[in-house]
Specification:
The structure holds 2 protein chains of 2 kinds. Chain A is mainly α. Helix content of chain A is about 90%, strand content about 0%. Classes of the chains: A mainly alpha, B mainly alpha.
């Protein structure tokens, strides 16, 4: 198992497409992190909002970000990443 | 001011004329019926313009002599040089014809129009043409009520001819009665002053009636009733020939540069022909007498002689002008040019930029923004709004709701003038650049090309949306008015959001925040669909209105999706990897629906 990993790493070192993939993976992690922050800030706002219209607006946005994050996490688990 | 007074003044003068002379009333009614016939004829030919005429035009105008003959034949058939010139202008504007061919047709039309004089002089005044008019009108009107387009077209042509004949009949009757009470011939002026005076009257009469044909018929009937002298009739015919260009000039006002150039050619040709006819009047009269004698026209048959004269001087005009056609075309193209701001050109792409990949990408990006700015303006104006309204601090929804008058702008024309050229240049540039190097910039170009296409799609969708929108925005039914206003307010809101994104394009996950806009739009669509069925159920709008609204919501959806797709490339500026990833995470239609259903 260890040798396999080592070979994969070596391969990655010489293979530019794998290097690119690594970059993409990092970017995906960065985007997911940002989305998480955005979601948190919306949730904070929601706690302090009394207006019903604003509340449902924020809830909708949170739902949207959740879906985006879910899609992003699935992508992270998939093979290409 | 002058325009406001003109029409009431004409009405007053005519009314006074009708009051003092019933004969004048009959002549005027004859002219009116004649003109109505021309309108009907025009309507009839319009039914055939789609296919047959277009094919014929392409095939029969590829050489100068062909376009000349085409002008003669088509004008003879349609009996209206104005119709032929206006049609030619429209074909020219559409780019089917070149200016050279157009000029050829106009020259030919001038000769073709003289056949009208032959018809009226040789046939119209001898037989009781009203006898032919009546059955034509009856058959024509029955055909107009038929559903198939070509039958309708024939109906309009037949009833048009019927009205023409009926008009001639009334003019003839009027002049014959007029003769008894009033002698116009007493006012005849001889020599060159008379020639110029009557030419001027001919011009004026044709300008007022918008038809040299009508003037000519009037001249012939007046001449046959001995109301004017032969010489004066000749001068009137010369004037009518010059005056007829006014229809083409009016027609060209709304046309593009090519149309205006053609109207210019028409004016130049008819002015020169007119001047030549005045200068050579004695020789022409002699030639007319000579030809008349040879073909057996009697000495005192002035109406037929007038027809000979009309044909002869137009023929001379063509013979004089034909060798100069190419010069005339070149001169017109130099003299009548598109105003600088009318045709927008590329500002940022230039061939040198192609050498430097990053500079090339940046140039295309800037040019695409340039296209977007023009497209945004077209979309706003196309939907009857203004830039100031859409980008005011707060969107003036109330003001838009109450708008009672909407100016229609020609989106196709605006697209041709302000987008197409730049769009083509960008595509050409990208294609060349793609060919030159295949590096990472090719990926950028892919998205920029896509953004360009999306902008154009948004304009096309606006064009479709405009058709019903302008109609329903001023409808008496306030429900449908309100719904269509919502559609355009939705467009305005989208444009405002995009502008915000343009400024904050480097903020965190900017691309993904576009999903919020998509979600909002989905909600809007759902709410509208619910309202739509309720309105139909409650009989507040007709099912026809409902289906129009459904289709037009589809166009709104096209505009929204296209502009949002464009914005992901054009307005979001961040690291390339981040953009790539965000594009992958962005939710599709189905996923957005699921969010709404949660």
């Amino acid at each position: 198992m260890k040798t396999k990993k080592l070979v994969a790493k070596l391969k990655g070192f010489f293979d530019s497409s794998l290097r690119d993939n690594e970059k993409k993976r990092e970017a995906l992690k960065e985007v997911l992190e940002k989305l998480k922050h955005k979601q948190k800030s919306f949730e904070q706002k929601l706690k302090h909002t009394q207006n019903q219209g604003d509340k449902s607006e924020l809830e909708k946005k949170i739902k949207l970000i959740r879906s985006q994050r879910k899609k992003g996490l699935e992508l992270l688990k998939s093979e290409g990443y | 001011m002058f325009k406001k007074v003109l029409l009431p003044s004409i009405f007053l003068i005519l009314a006074y004329g009708f009051w003092i002379s019933p004969d004048f009333k009959e002549i005027a009614a004859g002219v009116a019926i004649f003109l109505f016939g021309m309108l009907s004829l025009e309507e009839g030919f319009r039914a055939f313009t789609g296919g047959v005429l277009e094919k014929l035009l392409r095939r029969s105008t590829d050489r100068l002599w062909k376009s000349l003959s085409f002008g003669v034949v088509s004008t003879t058939l349609m009996q209206s040089s104005s119709l032929v010139s206006v049609l030619t202008i429209s074909f020219l504007s559409a780019g089917i014809l070149g200016l050279g061919e157009g000029v050829g047709i106009i020259f030919g039309a001038n000769l073709g129009t003289t056949t009208g004089a032959w018809l009226v002089a040789g046939f119209g005044l001898k037989v009781k043409i009203s006898a032919y008019a009546m059955p034509m009108l009856v058959f024509g009107v029955i055909l107009i009520f038929q559903r198939p387009g070509h039958l309708k077209g024939i109906g309009y042509v037949l009833s048009g001819l019927g009205f023409l004949f009926l008009g001639i009949h009334y003019m003839k009757e009027g002049f014959e009665a007029f003769r008894g009470s009033f002698d116009l011939a007493a006012y005849a002026v001889s020599g060159y002053p008379g020639l110029f005076l009557f030419s001027l009257i001919g011009i004026l009469a044709t300008v007022v009636m918008q038809s040299s044909h009508a003037t000519l018929v009037l001249i012939i009937t007046a001449l046959s009733a001995n109301q004017i002298t032969y010489e004066n009739a000749l001068a009137l015919a010369i004037g009518a020939n010059v005056g007829t260009t006014i229809t083409a000039i009016i027609g060209a006002m709304g046309a593009n540069v090519a149309g205006r150039q053609l109207a210019g050619a028409h004016l130049v040709f008819n002015m020169i022909t007119g001047l030549l006819a005045i200068l050579l009047i004695t020789e022409l009269i002699w030639a007319v007498d000579y030809i008349s004698e040879k073909v057996g026209i009697r000495d005192f048959d002035f109406t037929l002689k007038l027809a000979v004269f009309h044909t002869l001087f137009n023929l001379i005009g063509i013979m004089v002008m034909l060798p100069w056609t190419n010069h005339l075309v070149r001169w017109l193209q130099r003299f009548i040019k598109a105003p600088a701001e009318e045709l927008d050109a590329p500002k940022h792409i230039y061939s040198a930029a192609i050498e430097y990949p990053d500079a090339a990408v940046e140039a295309v990006r800037k040019e695409t923004l340039h296209i977007y700015d023009n497209a945004r303006d077209i979309i706003i104006r196309g939907l009857g709004m203004s830039h100031d309204q859409v980008f005011a601090d707060e969107l003036p929804k109330q003001q838009l709701e109450k708008q009672s008058k909407i100016t229609k702008v020609d989106i196709e024309d605006l697209y041709d003038r302000r987008v197409k050229r730049i769009f083509s240049a960008v595509i050409a540039f990208i294609s060349r650049a793609d060919f030159t190097w295949k590096e990472k910039q090719s990926g950028d170009f892919h998205w920029l090309r896509d953004a360009n296409s999306r902008i154009v799609e948004a304009i096309k969708a606006t064009k479709h949306l405009q058709k019903n929108m302008l109609h329903y925005l001023i409808s008496d039914n306030h429900h449908i008015r309100h719904e269509y206003n919502r559609l355009r307010i939705r467009v305005a809101e989208l444009l405002r959001e995009l502008e915000t994104l343009r400024v904050n394009g480097n903020s965190d996950v900017a691309l993904l925040s576009l999903d919020e806009l998509k979600l909002e739009f989905k909600e809007f669509e759902r709410a509208q669909s619910r309202r739509l069925f309720q309105l139909i159920r409650e009989d507040a709008i007709t099912p026809e209105m409902g289906t129009s609204l459904m289709n037009d919501s589809g166009y709104l959806s096209d505009i929204t999706n296209s502009l949002l797709a464009m914005a992901t490339t054009l307005f979001v500026s961040q690291r390339k990897e981040l953009t790539g990833v965000e594009r992958k995470i962005a939710l599709d239609d189905k996923e957005l629906e699921e969010v709404l259903d949660q």
